[in-house]
């Protein structure tokens, strides 16, 4: 009950100060005006300590009374009820005191609370203020620091140094008097100056840009002009071709050739360059051309992915075919051989013109897998040549260039590495293929810049670049001319006439009785079989690169057989004669000194028979001399006393002495112009 | 004797020419040095080659020992005869005699000491000197050759003292008979004539070709070589090589060599002879057996 009332009372207390009604519920309105008992005011007057004492005393009294009631109740009796009643009224009073005290306590409490609350509120308000202020302080501090840290953009600009500034800036900007003292003004002035300068530079920049644009446009215009020039120049070049030809200055042709030459393999390129250079520098009659298909040459260098695809395809195909039917080993080998001996599609053709209008055509090929150069030769003459029977081999493409340099027979490959390649595909030697592929002479390799180690340690003939080209060309020309000269001579020799030119007539007497009856070629093996050629064979002078002939000179019953070894290097290397005389027995150099002397006259003393340079008359002069020697021999033969009958050959030659020296030589030396014979 | 197998050397012009020269070379004369260690040989090109005999004959002889130690050009024409004094090598060829010092001969670029030409009758052709002979007792040299005469030259003064005539054709060879100072000469006319040096007259004549045993008419009658040992004489040429007894002028032994001889020498009991037509000098250690050959 008391709690309910205090609850109800609280809102009243808060609302209005000092308007509580004691013990009366909801009667505040009526009792507001008039007399009201204000317990709050009483509280202020009473002393809490005394109230506490009172409370304790009241509680004790109550306890005592209760105890007495108890006692009375327990004792029972009739007067107990009055005693209890008395006591009950006393305890009620006490209860009322207690209730008041409680009320007072509550009021005190409330008051205390209120006061505390107020104070708290104040404190809170102050606290709040403090916090606000602190917050503001912090904020301000931050702002201050921000302000302090503020960097003006102007500090990032690289200003010119002070001295420069004062030097360069015009005075209305620099305002020296003001700025010197005041750094702020100074900075401002500097910034001003900076701005000025930047403006000016920006101006310049714009100008330059516009200039550049202009110039670019000009360049474009000129480019167009030039590009339009190109087709015009081309047309001029085309038009000038006839003029070039007329003036013999084939620039265009040369240019085209150089274009094609780029696709040549390196050795052929070297050869091409050297030959062209030589032709231009030394020998105008030499012409160089490139033949063959450039496309094929380009095809050789296609990127490998194409060929790889092909390879894998062909491998698959190959496997299939081997399952079905094995291609013959021979065919496989053949293909491999063909592959190994493949030629590069391009070849270089060199034409050498000689003085007598005959031309030596040389075609140079490059064998790619073997890395050697080969050459095919052909001789064409101004007029048609009727080949005498014995001259068959002279100009044949197989042998016309044989042994241009001593020992260079061109039947074996000069590259030692090829031997291993040949073994793989069963080729024994290149000799079988030279007719088709051309001869791999050593001088050809040298012309192309290919050097191979020699198998035997022979002293190499010096050949340094340009010299070699020159020497080789000269040798080639001499070779062709000597062969052609021999060709002509053979034609005459086969008819039994020894063609002696008029400028060689002085070597021989006017009257020569012995005649050449036969002139034939002889095979190498047959030459080796002859009984009177053993010396030459043993001396190593009869190799298989030489050409062999047999001449027969007759006079009366005497027959002189002469076996001739013609070296490919005719006429710098003389032909070698071996004689066999059939007259009164067979006489050769092994049983007759004079036959030996006759051989010596043509073999050893050949230099006087060379005739005028270039000495192509050597062979015919030698043959003529043999006829003369036979005459002398037969006529000066001492008459054998035991045999009857006159001498078959009367002496017609003028000789000083018939025999001389311990070897009793006949006088074989002819003296011109006296016309007599003497001894050497 | 075997020749080495031909080497397949690529032959340039020079090599071919050399090979041809060698094939057509004839050695005409030889002479042994006074010390006996060297042999000089002269060929038809006018060259003289000096071989070292001691090296060639030694037990360690190789192919190179059979090559000449030095070769030089002595005469323009063939060197037909050579002879050695105790200091000089005398060589004769086309008409003149040259002397070389043995001590200097092995050096390169050796020059002759002197050269002499005997007085010839003809001037059209210079006659060759086919034979030289030393006469040590007189210190003179006898030359004989193409002009059919024997000339005597005094070695000290170099003058020509005698000219012995009698041959009808040119003289091939000479030999000295020591005991009675006689000179034998063999010539193209087929006769061997003996000359007495003191009287300068012909003492004896042997016409070899007239003797049937040794004559070979198909070869001719000429006497190519001659050697004598006072009582004995070897001569050959057109007729076969025969050993003669001089007193009786009769042939005793005939040597079985087919080719006509060019040169023969008695050396102790060796007969050195250049036989056949080659660039070789054959050495016989026994009569009739060819031991080995020296080659140019």
Account of the 3D structure:
The complex is a heterodimer of chains A (680) and B (296). With 680 residues, chain A is of the alpha+beta class. Chain A contains 22 helices and eleven strands. In chain A, the strands form three sheets. Chain A has a five-stranded antiparallel sheet. The model of chain A is unreliable at 11-24 and 304-319 (pLDDT under 50). Chain B starts with 12 loop residues before the first helix and ends with a strand. Classes of the chains: A alpha+beta (680), B mainly beta (296). Chain A: Residues 1-42, 300-330 are annotated as: Disordered. Chain A: Residues 22-42 have a biased composition (Basic and acidic residues).
Summarize the structure.
Chain A has helices at 2-15, 28-32, 39-45, 48-75, 80-149, 162-168, 171-174, 176-181, 183-247, 251-261, 266-281, 294-299, 304-324, 329-340, 418-425, 434-437, 442-447, 466-494, 524-529, 534-538, 593-603, 618-635, and strands at residues 287-292, 346-353, 359-367, 372-380, 515-522, 547-555, 558-566, 576-582, 586-588, 669-670, 677-678. In chain A, helix 4 packs antiparallel against helix 5 and helix 21 packs antiparallel against helix 22 (618-635).
Strand/helix succession of chain B: HEEEHEEEEEEEEEEEEEEEEEEEEE
**Percent of residues in beta strands of chain B:** over 45%
Helix/sheet category of chain A: alpha+beta
Main beta-sheet strand count, sense and barrel state of chain A: 5 strands, antiparallel
What's the alpha carbon Rg of chain A, rounded to whole Å? Answer: 71 Å
Strand content of chain A: 5-15%
Beginning-to-end CA distance, first to last residue of chain B: 15 Å
Question: Roughly how much helix do the residues of chain B carry, as a percent range?
Answer: under 10%
DSSP strand count of chain A? 11
Number of discrete helical segments of chain B: 2
Q: What's the mean pLDDT score of chain B?
A: 78
GO molecular function, one term (chain A): mRNA binding
Biased composition (Basic and acidic residues) (chain A): 22-42
GO cellular component, one term (chain A): THO complex part of transcription export complex
Pfam families (chain A): FmiP_Thoc5
């Amino acid at each position: 009950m008391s709690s309910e009332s205090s609850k109800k009372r609280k809102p009243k207390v808060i609302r209005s100060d000092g308007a509580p009604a004691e013990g009366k519920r909801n009667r505040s309105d009526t009792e507001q005006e008039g007399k009201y008992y204000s317990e709050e005011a009483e509280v202020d007057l009473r002393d809490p300590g005394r109230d506490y004492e009172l409370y304790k005393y009241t509680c004790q009294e109550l306890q005592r009374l209760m105890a007495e009631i108890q006692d009375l109740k327990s004792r029972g009796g009739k007067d107990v009820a009055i005693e209890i009643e008395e006591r009950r009224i006393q305890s009620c009073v006490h209860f009322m005191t207690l209730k008041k005290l409680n009320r007072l306590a509550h009021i005190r409490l409330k008051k205390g609370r209120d006061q505390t609350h107020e104070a708290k509120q104040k404190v809170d308000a102050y606290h709040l203020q403090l916090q606000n202020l602190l917050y503001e302080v912090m904020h301000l501090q931050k702002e201050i620091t921000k302000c302090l840290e503020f960097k003006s953009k102007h500090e990032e600009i690289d200003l010119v140094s002070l001295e420069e500034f004062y030097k360069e800036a015009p005075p209305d900007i620099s305002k020296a008097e003001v700025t010197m003292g005041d750094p702020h003004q100074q900075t401002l002035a500097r910034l001003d100056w900076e701005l000025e300068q930047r403006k000016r530079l920006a101006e310049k920049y714009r100008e330059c840009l516009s200039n550049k644009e202009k110039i670019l446009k000009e360049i474009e215009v000129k480019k167009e002009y030039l590009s339009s020039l190109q087709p015009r120049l081309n047309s001029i070049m085309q038009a000038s071709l006839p003029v070039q030809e007329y003036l013999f200055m084939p620039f265009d042709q040369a240019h085209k050739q150089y274009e094609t030459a780029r696709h040549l393999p390196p050795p052929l390129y070297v050869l091409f360059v050297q030959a062209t250079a030589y032709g231009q520098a030394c020998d105008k009659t030499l012409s160089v051309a490139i033949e063959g298909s450039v496309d094929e040459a380009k095809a050789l260098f296609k990127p490998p992915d194409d060929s790889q695809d092909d390879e894998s395809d062909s491998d698959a195909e190959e496997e299939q075919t081997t399952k079905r039917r094995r291609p013959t080993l021979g065919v496989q080998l053949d293909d491999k051989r063909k592959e190994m001996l493949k030629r590069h599609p391009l070849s270089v053709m060199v034409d050498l013109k000689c003085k007598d209008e005959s031309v030596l055509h040389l075609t140079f090929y490059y064998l790619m897998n073997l890395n050697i150069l080969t050459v095919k030769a052909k001789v064409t003459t101004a007029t048609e040549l009727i080949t005498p029977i014995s001259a068959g081999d002279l100009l044949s493409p197989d042998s016309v260039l044989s042994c241009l340099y001593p020992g260079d027979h061109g039947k074996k490959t000069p590259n030692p590495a090829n031997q291993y390649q040949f073994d793989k595909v069963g080729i024994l030697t290149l000799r079988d293929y030279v007719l088709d592929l051309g001869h791999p002479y050593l001088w050809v390799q040298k012309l192309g810049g290919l050097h191979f180690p020699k198998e035997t340690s022979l002293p190499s003939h010096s050949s340094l670049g340009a010299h070699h080209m020159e020497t080789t060309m000269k040798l080639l020309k001499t070779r062709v001319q000597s062969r052609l000269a021999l060709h002509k001579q053979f034609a005459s020799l086969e008819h039994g006439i020894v063609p002696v030119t008029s400028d060689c007539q002085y070597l021989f007497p006017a009257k020569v009785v012995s005649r050449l009856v036969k002139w034939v070629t002889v095979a190498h093996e047959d030459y080796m079989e002859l009984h009177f050629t053993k010396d030459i064979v043993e001396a190593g002078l009869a190799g298989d690169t030489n050409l062999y002939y047999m001449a027969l000179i007759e006079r009366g019953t005497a027959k002189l057989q002469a076996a001739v070894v013609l070296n490919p290097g005719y006429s710098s290397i003389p032909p070698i004669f071996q004689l066999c005389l059939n007259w009164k027995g067979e006489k050769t150099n092994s049983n007759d000194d004079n036959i030996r002397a006759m051989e010596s006259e043509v073999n050893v003393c050949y230099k006087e028979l060379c005739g005028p340079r270039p000495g192509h008359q050597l062979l015919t002069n030698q043959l003529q001399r043999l006829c003369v020697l036979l005459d002398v021999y037969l006529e000066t033969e001492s008459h054998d006393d035991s045999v009857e009958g006159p001498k078959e050959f009367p002496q017609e030659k003028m000789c000083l002495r018939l025999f001389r020296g311990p070897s009793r030589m006949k006088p074989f030396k002819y003296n011109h112009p006296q016309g007599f014979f003497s001894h050497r | 004797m075997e020749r080495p197998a031909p080497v397949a050397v690529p032959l340039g012009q020079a090599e071919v020419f050399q090979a041809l020269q060698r094939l057509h070379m004839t050695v005409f004369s030889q002479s042994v040095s006074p010390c006996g260690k060297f042999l000089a040989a002269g060929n038809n090109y006018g060259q003289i080659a000096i071989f070292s005999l001691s090296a060639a004959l030694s037990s360690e002889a190789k192919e190179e020992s059979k090559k000449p130690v030095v070769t030089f050009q002595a005469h323009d024409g063939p060197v037909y005869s050579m002879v050695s004094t105790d200091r000089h090598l005398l060589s004769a060829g086309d008409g003149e005699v040259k002397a070389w010092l043995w001590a200097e001969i092995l050096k390169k670029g050796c020059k002759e000491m002197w050269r002499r030409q005997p007085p010839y009758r003809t001037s059209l052709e210079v006659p060759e000197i086919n034979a030289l002979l030393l006469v040590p007792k007189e210190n003179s040299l006898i030359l004989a050759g193409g002009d059919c005469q024997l000339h005597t030259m005094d070695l000290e003064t170099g003058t020509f003292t005698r000219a012995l005539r009698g041959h009808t054709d040119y003289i091939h060879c000479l030999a000295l008979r020591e005991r009675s100072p006689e000179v034998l000469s063999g010539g193209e006319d087929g006769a061997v004539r003996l000359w007495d040096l003191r009287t300068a007259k012909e003492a004896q004549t042997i016409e070899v070709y007239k003797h049937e045993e040794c004559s070979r008419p198909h070869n001719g009658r000429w006497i190519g070589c001659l050697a004598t040992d006072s009582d004995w004489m070897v001569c050959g040429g057109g007729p076969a090589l025969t050993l003669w007894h001089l007193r009786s002028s009769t042939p005793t032994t005939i040597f079985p060599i087919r080719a006509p001889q060019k040169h023969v020498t008695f050396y102790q009991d060796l007969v050195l002879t250049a036989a056949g037509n080659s660039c070789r000098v054959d050495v016989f250690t026994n009569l009739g057996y060819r031991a080995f050959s020296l080659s140019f």
